[in-house]
């Protein structure tokens, strides 16, 4: 055609000889493809199918095709994957009923039947992310805690396969064999549990994917113990060397490698000795156990000290152990305190015995009548003595929080605890969650081993300590979790007032990250957050990005701003807002006298 045009323009004669080369080495289809790819644009679907034919019919690999057409092997792999999409979907793409982004989402799998099945399931929401989610709903992302725990190499070595997304940052792909993955996770957790039981001597250890909150067991905690003379000496030596190295290199901008390594060794030694200062009672270890749990980040978490109801000591055993552990002493203050305590206990037992004998001689109706009047007297007196009321309420809360099934409280206040980990995955592993766990464990270690001594423990605390324990127990019952179709609008309104009353500032407990928020909302929500937290200009700069890139960039921009989503914001306190009204005081005794 080009030569005929030259003749028409009279650039050459009709009889002008034209040199022609017949190429027998290359495939005509390949020559045509090269002409279209390198010189003239063709429909992308034609390129996908042409590359696929080269791979299937000529046996060319991605590198060979890439070298022939001047593109990268990765581009060739992408086009080969697109060429493997269901012909029905390819035709929809040609007709303009599917976008290239949607087609790339379908190409995440080469199962054409599944591609068409997902297409049929699509409703009004045909976003590429929805298509990918539906195609991988039976798979596990490589970032999943189970995959991180087992490791991709171990999974592949066991015969597992991984699905790769060539068009997005798939962060390791998707594991296709869920049954195999769960088998590997269970086996490794079991090995970790067996190793823990052998190393620490627990009666039992149980592996669990998630913490079994409904275990129904009492938990024992560690108690302070003295280091042996040998360990105390070794700790002092390590601490001294650590302090000397710190002083020697105080002004250094960067530590030499050997010094840095030695610091690490010393810190590890000191931590090990400090850990020995807290220990479980040998009896609790002998009849108790531990849970080996998989954390949200793929690491192991161990929760120790749980005692099953059937392994609890009987009252007779507890008394025998108490007698055996009583100090024989030399008549000092400790022995006097012990004798005083024993005397009070004996008096209490005598009173209980007398009450039991009296009850046996009275009818049940009369016993109920008398104790009802006694309860009324308790209420009247208790209402006039706030300090004792605080002791009683704190005792009731602590008895139910720290002693499962003890039923040793007289004030009818029942704490309702909501396990937040069932609503927010990994919440127990963030700094705030660990701080709460440490605070709770610190109180648990101080509790008397027998609930019978709890009243004296609470009553003998100084006022400030008692109020701190009261606040801790009360805080454990706070529940501001909003659930779908929540029927507690007034309670949630009070939660807002409580937040103002305690001056709650969630910037100290939460940050907007891809995992915590930005990767779980729409692009519009991300842009709104950047607009509020940074500036309108910053939001405009992100507007053209894909969602994953936008979320990552927004995390960096919002890191130091203190921005919070509306659900986490605490309204500024108005004048006297959140302050309780002064309750009227009723003097029932005076009224009765009148």
Can you walk me through this structure?
With 594 residues, this protein is mainly α. Among the domains are: 139-223 and 277-314, no CATH class; 226-276; 354-384, no CATH class. 55% of the residues lie in helices and 5% in strands. It is built from 27 helices and nine strands. The chain has helices spanning 2-8, 28-38, 44-57, 62-69, 73-83, 87-94, 100-106, 112-121, 128-135, 145-150, 152-157, 178-200, 229-248, 257-275, 282-287, 315-325, 333-360, 364-383, 386-402, 431-446, 454-460, 463-475, 489-501, 523-533, 536-542, 547-558, 588-593; strands at 140-141, 162-163, 174-175, 204-208, 218-219, 223-224, 278-279, 289-294, 300-307. A four-stranded mixed sheet has the order 4-8-9-5. Strand 8 and strand 9 form a beta hairpin. Helix 7 (100-106) packs parallel to helix 9, helix 13 (229-248) runs antiparallel to helix 14 (257-275) and helix 24 (523-533) packs parallel to helix 26. The longest helix is centred in the middle third of the chain and has 28 residues, at 333-360. The protein starts with a helix and ends with a helix. Residues 322-345 and 573-594 have low confidence and may be disordered.
Task: Spell out the blueprint of helices and strands.
Elements lengths: L1 H7 L19 H11 L5 H14 L4 H8 L3 H11 L3 H8 L5 H7 L5 H10 L6 H8 L4 E2 L3 H6 L1 H6 L4 E2 L10 E2 L2 H23 L3 E5 L9 E2 L3 E2 L4 H20 L8 H19 L2 E2 L2 H6 L1 E6 L5 E8 L7 H11 L7 H28 L3 H20 L2 H17 L28 H16 L7 H7 L2 H13 L13 H13 L21 H11 L2 H7 L4 H12 L29 H6 L1
Parallel strand pairs: 4-8
Antiparallel strand pairs: 1-3, 2-3, 5-9, 6-7, 8-9
């Amino acid at each position: 055609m080009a030569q005929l045009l030259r003749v028409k323009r009279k650039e050459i004669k009709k009889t002008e000889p034209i040199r022609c080369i017949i190429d027998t080495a290359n495939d005509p289809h390949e020559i045509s493809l090269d002409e279209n790819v390198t010189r003239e644009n063709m429909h992308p679907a034609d390129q996908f199918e042409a590359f696929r034919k080269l791979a299937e019919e000529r046996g060319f690999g991605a590198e060979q095709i890439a070298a022939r057409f001047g593109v990268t092997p990765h581009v060739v792999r992408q086009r080969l994957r697109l060429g493997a999409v269901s012909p029905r979907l390819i035709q929809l793409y040609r007709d303009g009923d599917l976008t290239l982004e949607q087609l790339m989402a379908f190409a995440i799998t080469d199962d054409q039947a599944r591609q068409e099945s997902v297409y049929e399931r699509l409703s009004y929401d045909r976003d590429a992310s929805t298509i990918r989610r539906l195609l991988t709903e039976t798979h596990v992302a490589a970032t999943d805690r189970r995959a991180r725990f087992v490791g991709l190499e171990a999974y592949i070595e066991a015969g597992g396969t991984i699905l790769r997304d060539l068009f997005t940052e798939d962060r390791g792909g998707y594991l296709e064999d869920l049954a195999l993955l769960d088998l590997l996770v269970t086996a490794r957790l079991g090995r970790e549990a067996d190793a823990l039981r052998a190393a620490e001597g627990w009666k039992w250890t149980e592996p669990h994917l998630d913490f079994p909150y409904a275990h129904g067991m009492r938990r024992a905690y560690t108690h302070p113990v003295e280091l042996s003379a040998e360990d105390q000496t070794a700790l002092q030596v390590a601490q001294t060397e650590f302090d000397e190295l710190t002083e020697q290199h105080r002004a250094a901008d960067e530590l030499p490698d050997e010094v840095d390594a030695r610091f690490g060794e010393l810190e590890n030694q000191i931590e090990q000795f400090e850990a020995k200062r807290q220990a479980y009672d040998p009896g609790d270890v002998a009849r108790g156990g531990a849970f080996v749990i998989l954390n949200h980040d793929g690491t192991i978490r161990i929760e120790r000290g749980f005692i099953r109801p059937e392994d609890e000591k009987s009252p007779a055993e507890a008394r025998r152990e108490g007698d055996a552990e009583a100090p024989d002493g030399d008549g000092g203050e400790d022995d006097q305190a012990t004798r005083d305590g024993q005397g009070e206990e004996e008096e209490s037992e005598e009173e209980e015995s007398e009450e039991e004998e009296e009850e046996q001689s009275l009818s049940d109706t009369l016993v109920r009548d008398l104790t009802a009047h006694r309860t009324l007297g308790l209420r009247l007196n208790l209402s006039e003595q706030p300090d004792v009321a605080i002791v009683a309420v704190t005792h009731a809360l602590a008895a139910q929080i720290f002693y499962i099934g003890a039923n040793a409280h007289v004030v009818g206040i029942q704490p309702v605890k909501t396990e937040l980990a069932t609503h927010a995955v990994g919440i127990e592993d963030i700094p705030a969650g660990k701080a709460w766990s440490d605070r709770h464990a610190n109180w648990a270690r101080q509790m008397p081993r027998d609930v019978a001594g709890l009243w004296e423990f609470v009553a003998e605390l100084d006022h400030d300590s008692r109020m701190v324990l009261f606040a801790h127990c009360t805080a454990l019952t706070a529940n501001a979790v909003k659930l779908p179709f929540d029927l507690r609008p007034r309670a949630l309104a009070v939660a807002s007032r409580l937040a103002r009353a305690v001056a709650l500032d969630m910037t100290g407990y939460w940050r907007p990250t891809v995992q915590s928020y930005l990767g779980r909302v729409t692009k519009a929500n991300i842009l709104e957050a950047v607009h509020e937290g940074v500036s309108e200009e910053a939001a405009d700069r992100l507007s053209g990005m894909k969602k994953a890139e936008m979320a990552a960039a927004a995390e960096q921009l919002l890191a130091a701003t203190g921005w919070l989503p509306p659900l986490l914001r605490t309204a500024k306190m108005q004048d006297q807002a959140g302050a309780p009204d002064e309750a009227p005081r009723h003097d029932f005794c005076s009224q009765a006298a009148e």
